Amino acid sequence: MSEKGKGKCKGKCKGKKYDSGKPQWHLLPIKAIEKVVKVLGFGAEKYGEDNWMVVENSRVRYFDAAMRHLTTWYNGERYDKESGYHHLAHAICCIVFLLTLDGGRDEED
Question: In percent, how much of the chain has pLDDT > 70?
Answer without folding.
Answer: 87
